[in-house]
UniProtKB/TrEMBL annotation:
Pfam families: GGDEF. It comes from Actinoplanes auranticolor. This is GGDEF domain-containing protein. InterPro entries: Diguanylate_Cyclase (IPR050469), GGDEF_dom (IPR000160), Nucleotide_cyclase (IPR029787), Rev_trsase/Diguanyl_cyclase (IPR043128), TPR-like_helical_dom_sf (IPR011990). Residues 518-537 are annotated as: Disordered.
Amino acid sequence: MSWMDVRKQEATRLSAALTEIEDQYLWDADATLTTAVAIEEQALALGDERLVFRARLCQANMEMRKGEVAAAARRIWKIHQWATDHTDTIVLARTHLVWANIHRHLGDAAQCLEHSVLAVELLDEQATPHMQVWHRAKLADALGLAGSMDAARQRYQQTEELAVDLGLPRLLMGMLNNYAYTEHAAGENGRAQEVARRLQQVAERHGFTLDPAVLDTIGVIEIENGNYLAAERTLREAVRRHHDGNYEDADALAEYMLTLARAQRFLRATDRAQVNLDMSRTLCVERGLGDVLVRVHQEQAELHAARGEFAEAFAVHKIFFSAHNALHSSQREAQARTRQAMFETTEARQEAERFREQARRDPLTGLRNRRYLDEELPGLIEAGGPLTVAIVDLDHFKRINDQLSHDVGDQVLVLVAKLLETELAAVSPDGFVARMGGEEFLMVLPGTDVPEATNRLDGVREAVSYYDWAELTRGLPVTVSIGVAGLRDAPAATQASLLSMADRNLYVAKHAGRDRVISTGPRDARHRSYRDSASAA
């Protein structure tokens, strides 16, 4: 046998070993990481670059599942770049699936959805049956995480049928577990129970032992049904199996401990609950699990209240509320995205466009979000010409939340968003409104200089102020303060400079009495209020 034949056989063996790792449903993360490192060394010796990067992707996946999310994220860029340069759609598809999980751990639902879409778009005839099922299942998960339940259910149904057709019961059980939890998270406990029942039937039919993640899902549903003692037993077993079985997923144990603490709180076993909640918090901090940590803060407030510690409960609730806003209002910088492969049918391409659009929308108001702003505004700045931006902030919004409810606050935000969008359409058809987070919005007016924009924006301010809020807010007024900035007046032609100037003017508007528009004119750096002066720019 020639050296070339030996080399080819060795490459085939390593490729099969990597496929076995890639297509597993559950891993011993430490052992698998060691195996992947060994395969990389052998691939380097062979000079097979594709095998090297596949092995590195397996390592990134295991690091992510061990909780080393930052290390996994650092690896993923180079793997993505190699796969893009070599138009390797299978490595790209697997890369985006790992990337989606990284963003899920970081609490970034929009980026998780973005990468999940790409992970399915890139599937082709070379994709394994495991990929065909699991990539679609993870897209359904991402849709549910983003709040698009109808689309998620459609994807889950398609995936369930595909898993049955391909004879993959282990993946079917994993998909049903995720489906049940997603329904629970959406507040659909009846649907969750039905899916969990089908999950247990699959396990019984095929002789599978329920893994810890499945037990966590069942425990969560038991809590919703008021079966707290059963839930505690289920979650204790989940934690035991997690340790005994060497299951590793970055957020898994933190989730189990949090669910266990909830069950114990309902049982009034507050000391046991506190111990488990503290363990969950420690894991969240160590592993950077922002989404889980927010829920830990929420549960801590509930636990204080259950012990009658109402001052402590209120203090922690404020921490929870702040963390919740920070998590859901900040969108990370958009990074390099792969667009080489599309779904093979026109319908699939249309779905992909819908999912991309969803990733750039604020789920509460339907407005554009910070991600869209960060993608669009730099191009408008670079194009030059007249451009005005305005930061719009609701006045005394906290009072509405505190005196009425957060539900009423959300309704106010939705109505204000509609007013801003309607008014802007008449003022600047090419412009857009984005929700920056909380009660803060940004209006972008291309082709409009500051004097004209300021005049128009005062009409926007009046539209909000004069709207009939009485029935919704029970007499509490709803007004906005607006800080305006123009590109021609900005110290530098950058997004940061433009937004900073608008933010300074908003600050002036707030301290000048609120319910007003403040802009800085081109030849007069002093802050001026349009509301107080008809000649203001």
